[in-house]
Amino acid sequence: MSVTSGATAFSSPSPQVPGFLRLLAHDVRWRLMLALARSDHRVHELIALLDQPANLVSYHLKKLREGELVHERRSSADARDIYYSIDLGKVRDMFFAAGDALHPGITHAQVESAHGSEPTTPRGLAPGSSQPARSRSERAERAERVEAAERAGGVDGPQKARVLFLCTHNSARSQMAEGILRQIGGNLVEVCSAGTEPSQVHADAIRTLAGMGIDITGHHSKHVDEFRDQRFDYVVTVCDKARESCPYFAGDPDQIHWSFPDPSALEDEEARLQLFRSIAHDLLARNRFLLSLVEGDRRRSKGQ
C-alpha cells in the first residue's frame, strides 16, 4: 500500500484540530486548568499559584471562558470576588470526543455525559434507587479497587480516607454532599459535615436526596468545633462564607473549595427546589471526581 493510500485510509473525518485541544495547548491555560481541576479559585489565588502577571492570567482565563471550559460565579461572601471553576464532566467528554476523532479505537465505550440529565434524577443514580447507576465495567472496576483496598487492610482501618464538608449552616449543601459521597464512596471514605453557624437540615435537602434514593432523615446540623481536634484527609468547603472562616485542622488536610450558591436563600418554592436539584446534580459529579482523586492520592502515597 502506498503512503498516499494509507494516509487516505486513516484520515480523520475532520482534519481540523479540535478547538478544545488548541485551547489547552498553551502552558498558562493548561496550568490554570490543572489548578481548577482540584478546587475552585479566585483570580488572585490563581495569579499566586501560577506566579504569573495578573493581566496574563486574566487574558487566558477569558480565553478559557470563551471556550466554555471555565465558568465564573460571584462569591456569596464578597460580591467583589469571582470564583472560577471547571466542569470536569464536560472536559472529560471533550477529551474522549477528541480521542474518537483521532481513532475510534482509543475509546471503547461512550462516556456518560455530565449534562442533559433530568434535574429530578441527577445522572449516575437510577430513579428511586439507592444505588448509583453504573455500567457493568464501572461496577467491576470499583469492586476491584475495593477488593485491593481490603487486601491492603485499609478499608475498615485507618487508611480509609476521611472527608469533611463545610458550609455555614450545615443545612443544605454540606448535608447533601455528605449524603451523596457516603452513598457512592462505600467503604473507601468516611464522611462528615459541619457548619460555622449550624441550624437544622433543610426539608428540601432531605426531599432532593430522597428523589435520588438517598436517605438523610437521620442527619442533624453540627458545629465545626466538634471536629477541630480530628484529623481529615480532605476538607471541602461548599460555601464561600465558610471558606473565609474555615478553621485550621491538624495534619494539613487537602483544602478544596466548591463554590455553590445557597439554595435555601430563595423564597420561591419551585425555584428553590430546582436549585437544590441542580446543586445535587453537581455534587454528584464533583464527588465522583473526588473519589478518583482519593484513589489516585492513595496509590501515589504507596508508590504505585
How is the biggest beta sheet arranged?
Answer: 4 strands, parallel
* Strand percent estimate: 5-15%
Runs with pLDDT <50, length 5+?
1-12, 109-124, 126-140, 149-158
The total of beta strands comes to 7
Q: What's the helical proportion of residues?
A: 40-55%
Number of DSSP helical runs: 11
- The SSE string, one letter per element, is HHHEHHEEHHEHEHEHEH
What do these coordinates show?
The relative contact order is 0.12. The chain is 45% helix and 11% strand. By secondary structure, the protein is α/β, with parallel strands linked by helices. The chain has eleven helices and seven strands.
In terms of topology, how is this protein built?
Layout: H1 3-9, H2 19-24, H3 27-38, E1 41-42, H4 43-50, H5 54-66, E2 70-74, E3 82-86, H6 88-102, H7 136-151, E4 161-167, H8 173-185, E5 189-195, H9 203-210, E6 234-237, H10 240-244, E7 254-257, H11 269-301
Parallel strand pairs: 4-5, 4-6, 6-7
Antiparallel strand pairs: 1-3, 2-3
Short descriptors:
304 residues, 4-stranded parallel beta sheet, 3-stranded antiparallel beta sheet, 7 strands, globular, disordered N terminus
Q: What is this entry, summarized?
A:
By secondary structure, this protein is of the alpha/beta class. The chain has eleven helices and seven strands. Strands 5-4-6-7 form a four-stranded parallel beta sheet.
